[in-house]
Amino acid sequence: MSAWDSDRDRDSDRDSERDIDALRLRQLRAFLAVAEERNFTHAADRLGIGQPALTRTVRALEETVGARLLERTTRRVALTEDGRALYADLGPLLARLDDALRAVGGRAMLRLGFTSLLPDRCAALTSAFEAATGAGVRLVRRDAPLAGLRAGACDVAVVRGEAPLGDEVRSRVLLREARVAAVARTAADGLAAVARRRVLDWAELARFPLVVNTVSGTTRPELWPEDHRPRLACTADNFDEWLEAVAAGHGIGVVSEAAAQRHSHPGIRFLRLKNAPPVTVRLAIPARGPHPLAERFFAMALAGS
Description:
Elements: H1 3-37, H2 40-47, H3 51-65, E1 70-72, E2 77-79, H4 81-103, E3 109-114, H5 121-133, E4 136-141, E5 156-160, E6 169-177, E7 179-184, H6 190-195, E8 199-201, E9 210-213, E10 232-236, H7 239-247, E11 253-256, H8 257-262, E12 268-274, E13 279-286, H9 292-303
Parallel strand pairs: 3-4, 3-5, 8-12, 9-10
Antiparallel strand pairs: 1-2, 5-13, 6-13, 7-11, 7-12
C-alpha cells in the first residue's frame, strides 16, 4: 500500500468517526426531545424532522447503548428505568454543551423556560435585562415539570403553582393570578346548567368532575377539603390536551385568568370564580451552579417585585 493510500484510509477513518459522533449527538438530542415531550409527534415538530426519522434515530440510540429507553404504547410514551437515568444525566450535559457553543463568537444568551404561557410582566423584565446586560433572551417552551429546568432545557423557568420541592431549585414569588373555570359550551347533563352561568363559587366546583393537567396545571382535587372534593374526570399531559378534554365535555377545568385570556377555544366558556385561591407564579433557577445570567435575571425580578 502506498503512503498516499495509507493517508487516504486514515482520513476516511477520521471522517467516519466524525460521522458517528455527529449521529450520536443527534440521537441524544432526539431522545431528550421525546423524553421531555412524552410524545413522538410533538418531539418531531420541535426538532423539525419527520416522525419516522425520529423513531429510527431513537431506536438507533437504544441499539448503541444496548438498552430500551422508552416504553411505547398507542396512547403515550414513558421512560424506562434506564431511560430515566439517561435523561437525568443527559439534560445538564447537553445544556453545558449548548452554553459552550453559545459563548463562542456570539452574543450571550439566557434561556427563559415556560409551559403554557409567560405572564405580561416578563416582557418588561426581559427588556430591562437585555438593556442592562447586553445579553439576549431565548424563550423555551416545554410541557414538562419546571419547564425542563432540572433537565437543563432552560436556565431560568417561570412556573405556576406550589413551590418546587427539594433542594435542587431556588424559587421566589413573581406574582399571583386569579383562577377561572372552563366548561364546554355544549356540555350535557349536570354541566349544561353550569355552561349558562357567568360566575361560580369555588366551593360549588366540588360537585362536578374535574379535568386536570398533570404536567403544567395548577388545580387538583387536593385543593378542596378532603370531605368535599371534585371527582377526577380525566387527566391531560399538556395544556392543549386539557383544552380539548374540557371542550369535549369530560368535566370542568380550572386555569389562571391569564391563560384563559391568551388561549380562547370556540368550544369553551370561561367563568369567573369567587373565593378561589390565586395561582402563584414563581421564577425558579437551579440551587447549585446556576448560569450567571440566570442569577442576574433572578435578582432583577426580585428587585422589581
